[in-house]
UniProtKB/TrEMBL annotation:
<dbReference type="GO" id="GO:0005886">
    <property type="term" value="C:plasma membrane"/>
</dbReference>
<keyword id="KW-0963">Cytoplasm</keyword>
<feature type="binding site">
    <location>
        <position position="140"/>
    </location>
    <ligand>
        <name>Zn(2+) 2</name>
    </ligand>
</feature>
<dbReference type="GO" id="GO:0004046">
    <property type="term" value="F:aminoacylase activity"/>
</dbReference>
<dbReference type="GO" id="GO:0006520">
    <property type="term" value="P:amino acid metabolic process"/>
</dbReference>
<feature type="active site">
    <location>
        <position position="74"/>
    </location>
</feature>
<keyword id="KW-0378">Hydrolase</keyword>
<protein>
    <recommendedName>
        <fullName>N-acyl-aliphatic-L-amino acid amidohydrolase</fullName>
        <ecNumber>3.5.1.14</ecNumber>
    </recommendedName>
</protein>
<feature type="active site" description="Proton acceptor">
    <location>
        <position position="139"/>
    </location>
</feature>
<dbReference type="Pfam" id="PF01546">
    <property type="entry name" value="Peptidase_M20"/>
</dbReference>
<dbReference type="InterPro" id="IPR011650">
    <property type="entry name" value="Peptidase_M20_dimer"/>
</dbReference>
<dbReference type="GO" id="GO:0046872">
    <property type="term" value="F:metal ion binding"/>
</dbReference>
<feature type="binding site">
    <location>
        <position position="167"/>
    </location>
    <ligand>
        <name>Zn(2+) 1</name>
    </ligand>
</feature>
<feature type="domain" description="Peptidase M20 dimerisation">
    <location>
        <begin position="180"/>
        <end position="291"/>
    </location>
</feature>
<dbReference type="InterPro" id="IPR001261">
    <property type="entry name" value="ArgE/DapE_CS"/>
</dbReference>
<feature type="binding site">
    <location>
        <position position="72"/>
    </location>
    <ligand>
        <name>Zn(2+) 1</name>
    </ligand>
</feature>
<feature type="binding site">
    <location>
        <position position="105"/>
    </location>
    <ligand>
        <name>Zn(2+) 2</name>
    </ligand>
</feature>
Length: 410
């Protein structure tokens, strides 16, 4: 167990922090881990300097579709002064909790896949289907140069993947969370224009006034969604979330901002997440009519938006991979809770869009969700238990004999 934990810590110590991740260090490390497992390996640069590592454990029946275990190698930035232990040190405290950026999101999962394969090989297990592992770059900044290009590639098609597993979220309770779809990310910037003027003058249609009207309207909508959530009976992934990311306006001066000049431009940015169950067209109409109406001298732009429809992976008897997953977790002594819509975004959306079903799953129970937060940590025991869960899942998936795949549906 000590060696297993040390290998996890070693991966966590590699600086793959956005916006300057040392991708090749991570890839070299994973390759060194894969060597003793005799996995086939290829490194693909869809974009220069952003390697995607693809590993393959060859199954004995090449006529069966394979499955893919995906993880991203990058992590989000941190404010190290706000952490109890430095986020790149992967310090394990006396409770056995390992503190590091990526300990939950999602270097844990990437290493657990490999450790599970190591254990299966040691036990003499031979896969019937091929198992692919992808270690992809750039998930945290949208995945466009990583999983998106991969999922759209000829290479991906040629792998004949029937099901993808990707990241989920830690569960504060005993049962693991599983995700079968995601909210669609809308990173929205609204801009207002208006005549400038003296700071002492009251007049209509200034950029600031125009922007504030929109912000008030957006806040009312946010409150209505938050109220639904607070009232209970509805999950996080089933309401629209709206949060202001930035406000930008004013005329800079050496001491701050000019105080007696009403600026001619002002803008605000919002992180909005739209559930598949919500009428996105109606929401976009609201945006055009109420949040950024041209009549009020406003315009808008999306910095990020998933185009097209949102695909859902069946999490019922119609999808054999669902039952296999549920059962495998059970056999490992765990439990899955009711499948949910992922509240944020993961690379799984690109695989689903390519027509391949995908589940979001991180085997982390009894742990607060600290993704992107200070003091992200994972307990050693939870990490080790997660490896056993993957042993069980990989065994079940790799042994599944049926030729039938399953395609995604809306
Ligand atoms: C919308 S692209 C950014 C992806 C990112 N994923 C995880 O946190 C997220 O903010 O959901
Ligand atoms: Zn992640
Ligand atoms: Zn993340």
């Amino acid at each position: 167990d000590d060696a297993i934990v040390s290998r996890f810590q070693e991966y966590l110590r590699i600086n793959t922090v956005q916006p300057n991740p040392e991708y090749y260090k991570a890839v070299d490390f994973i390759i060194s881990q894969a060597k003793p497992l005799s996995l086939e390996s290829q490194t693909i640069e869809f974009v220069k300097g952003k390697p995607l590592l693809l590993l393959k454990w060859v199954g004995s029946d090449p006529t069966l579709p394979a499955f893919l275990l995906n993880s991203h190698t990058d992590v989000v930035p941190f404010e190290d002064s706000k952490w109890t232990h430095h986020p790149l040190q992967a310090h394990m405290d006396h409770h056995g909790d390992i503190y590091a950026r990526g300990s939950q999101d999602m270097k844990c999962v990437g290493m657990q896949y490999l450790e599970a394969i190591r254990k299966l090989q040691a036990s003499g297990f031979k896969p019937l289907r091929s198992v692919y592992l992808s270690f992809v770059p750039d998930e945290e900044i949208g995945g466009h140069d990583g999983a998106e290009k991969f999922a759209e590639s000829q290479l991906f098609k040629s792998l004949n993947i029937a099901i993808v597993l990707d990241e989920g979220l830690p569960s504060p309770t005993e049962s693991y969370r599983v995700f079968y779809g995601e909210r669609s990310p809308w990173w929205l910037v609204i801009k207002a224009k208006g005549p400038p003027g003296h700071g002492a003058k009251l007049y209509d249609n200034s950029a600031m006034e125009n922007l504030l009207k929109s912000i008030e309207s957006i806040r009312r909508f946010r409150a209505s969604q938050f109220d639904l959530l607070k009232a209970g009976g509805i999950a996080e992934g089933d309401v629209v979330s709206v949060n202001m990311a930035f406000l930008k306006a004013g005329t800079p001066s050496p001491t701050g901002f000019v105080m007696n000049l009403q600026p001619s431009e002002a803008e605000a940015g919002f992180d909005i997440r739209v559930p598949p169950s919500v009428d996105a067209e109606a929401l976009e109409r609201r945006l055009v009519e109420e949040w950024a109406p041209a009549a009020r001298n406003m315009s808008f732009e999306f910095k990020q938006k998933l185009t097209g429809k949102q695909f859902l992976t069946a999490a019922d008897d119609s999808n054999p991979w669902w039952g296999l997953l549920e059962n495998a977790v059970k056999e490992a002594g765990g439990r899955t809770s009711k499948p949910e819509i992922f509240p944020a975004s993961t690379d799984a959306r690109y695989f689903r869009k390519a027509g391949v079903p995908a589940f979001g799953f991180s085997p982390i129970s009894n742990t607060p969700s600290l993704l992107h937060d200070h003091n992200e940590y994972l307990g050693k025991a939870e990490y080790l238990k997660g490896i056993e869960v993957y042993v069980s899942i990989i065994k079940a998936y790799a042994s599944y004999e049926s030729k039938s795949g399953s395609r995604d549906e809306l």
